[in-house]
Amino acid sequence: MKIEETKLKGCFVIEPEIFHDERGHFFESFNQKEFEKKIGQKVDFVQDNQSFSKKGVLRGIHFQMGKYAQAKLVRVLSGKVLDVAVDLRKDSKTFGEYIAVELSAENKKQMFVPRGFGHGFITLSETSEFAYKCDNFYQKESERGIIYNDKSIKIDWQLAESEIIVSQKDNQLPSFDVAILELN
Ligand SMILES: Cc1cn([C@H]2C[C@H](O)[C@@H](COP(=O)(O)OP(=O)(O)O[C@H]3O[C@@H](C)C(=O)[C@@H](O)[C@H]3O)O2)c(=O)[nH]c1=O
């Protein structure tokens, strides 16, 4: 397993080692001992989520507030997505910056998005199946978000605006400037 920290401290890209043989292939999609050693912290995942999306569907940018904050270990089971993490830690040198990484069933890359980040992804292939582990439970009341096309974060989602599909809920999310007023 190869784990590399991104320019956003605490946010990692993980590439599992794939073992190929005549039957197909095998890989460890998660190994707690190795994972915690490489990221240098303990993480107790308590919830696994899975979502299916059509091309152009953009989910995000989401996070949960305060004690309900979630770290996420995300990966793609089929298709290809652009996965985005936005640093929302006010005391961070990279506050307000984002990273975008292509995750696909083919490259098998994963992203670890720590607490204190906003997270979103867009499906670039015809469909995608997306799976992730969370270290805190879903708590509807503490759900927050930032509008995907925020003018100060300026995320390049790789698809034309006309191809992007967002839920009504996500389309009404506030701008970065407004969303951060509530953060510590
Ligand atoms: C996230 C979540 C949703 N739900 C329900 C609420 C709702 O009725 C339905 C769909 O929820 P959403 O529209 O929020 O799903 P979605 O837009 O896929 O939300 C997810 O987006 C990505 C980017 C993340 O990072 C996740 O943490 C999560 O926020 O599923 C749960 O029951 N448990 C959960 O953990």
UniProtKB/TrEMBL annotation:
<keyword id="KW-0413">Isomerase</keyword>
<comment type="pathway">
    <text>Carbohydrate biosynthesis; dTDP-L-rhamnose biosynthesis.</text>
</comment>
<comment type="similarity">
    <text>Belongs to the dTDP-4-dehydrorhamnose 3,5-epimerase family.</text>
</comment>
<dbReference type="InterPro" id="IPR014710">
    <property type="entry name" value="RmlC-like_jellyroll"/>
</dbReference>
<dbReference type="Pfam" id="PF00908">
    <property type="entry name" value="dTDP_sugar_isom"/>
</dbReference>
<dbReference type="InterPro" id="IPR000888">
    <property type="entry name" value="RmlC-like"/>
</dbReference>
<protein>
    <recommendedName>
        <fullName>dTDP-4-dehydrorhamnose 3,5-epimerase</fullName>
        <ecNumber>5.1.3.13</ecNumber>
    </recommendedName>
</protein>
<comment type="subunit">
    <text>Homodimer.</text>
</comment>
<dbReference type="GO" id="GO:0008830">
    <property type="term" value="F:dTDP-4-dehydrorhamnose 3,5-epimerase activity"/>
</dbReference>
<comment type="function">
    <text>Catalyzes the epimerization of the C3' and C5'positions of dTDP-6-deoxy-D-xylo-4-hexulose, forming dTDP-6-deoxy-L-lyxo-4-hexulose.</text>
</comment>
<dbReference type="InterPro" id="IPR011051">
    <property type="entry name" value="RmlC_Cupin_sf"/>
</dbReference>
